[in-house]
Design a protein that fits this description.
With 235 residues, this protein is an alpha/beta fold. The protein is built from eight helices and six strands, in the order αβααβαβαααβαββ. A six-stranded mixed beta sheet has the order 3-2-4-1-5-6. α4 links the parallel β2 and β3.
Length: 235
């Protein structure tokens, strides 16, 4: 990775660890489930590998940590930075902007159950339900999700814009959920939520967004990155 890319501010997307419903694929929006022991272990494993000085996410380079208000996200954020020397200096904010998509009547259901329910209501005669296009009855529409994410993105860019070409810490971490983080990535790139960009992020997983050419007007995925070799000293 070039020096300019290595110093360009980043936004790290961190999905919470596994819960009882995420394990089974049930849509979990407002239901406030805790992490399973396996979910906590996922997060600790991620933190051990990627968080720390001289690692992918250096806590000393963070200007802000935004966290969903749901319990599973709060637990994840705590585990990610637990024991880090910089932990007490982190500027962390809980924000409704990162709450998971409100699934309304579809809370706790599986995708096939949602589609069966909608067909029984006479919906989706010509095409199957797609949350990115159709939203959720009794919950949020794609437009409502877009609105709250765009407000957060504007705040993030205001924080990072002054330091696109400086060494001042300007990285940001988002700790949230599977659908809302993927929605965030689409909006970061300027795509409508219905844009057919398939993405995955595993429980306890990390994604990276940044900017091309150190330009605040060129938001981008950091699709792949190289890792420097450690210095080898001769005996």
């Amino acid at each position: 990775m070039s020096l300019k890319d290595a110093t360009t501010p980043r936004v790290y997307l961190c999905r919470h660890g596994e819960t009882e419903w995420s394990r089974s694929g049930r849509y979990t929006g407002t239901t406030d489930l805790p992490l399973l022991p396996s979910g906590a272990a996922q997060v600790r494993g991620t933190a051990n590998i990627v968080i720390g000085a001289r690692k992918l996410i250096n806590p000393w380079k963070l200007v802000k940590v935004f966290v969903s208000p749901r319990q599973r996200a709060g637990e994840t954020a705590e585990l990610l930075f637990q024991g880090q020397e910089a932990e007490r200096h982190l500027d962390s904010e809980v924000t409704e902007a990162l709450a998971e998509w409100d699934y309304g009547e579809y809370e706790g259901l599986l995708t096939n159950e949602i589609r069966e329910k909608r067909r029984g209501e006479g919906r989706d005669v010509e095409r199957e339900w797609d949350i990115w296009r159709d939203g959720c009855v009794g919950g949020e529409s794609p437009q409502q999700v877009t609105s709250r994410l765009d407000t957060l993105i504007s705040e993030i860019r205001a924080l990072q814009a002054p330091d696109m070409r400086t060494s001042t810490p300007a990285d940001i971490v988002l700790v949230a959920h599977g659908h809302i983080l993927r929605a965030f990535a689409k909006r970061w790139l300027g795509y409508p939520l219905k844009f057919p960009l398939s993405m995955m992020i595993e429980p306890g997983g990390i994604g990276i967004l940044s900017y091309q050419h150190q330009n605040i007007e060129e938001p981008a995925f950091l699709l792949g990155m190289g890792f420097p070799l450690e210095d080898e000293s001769e005996d």
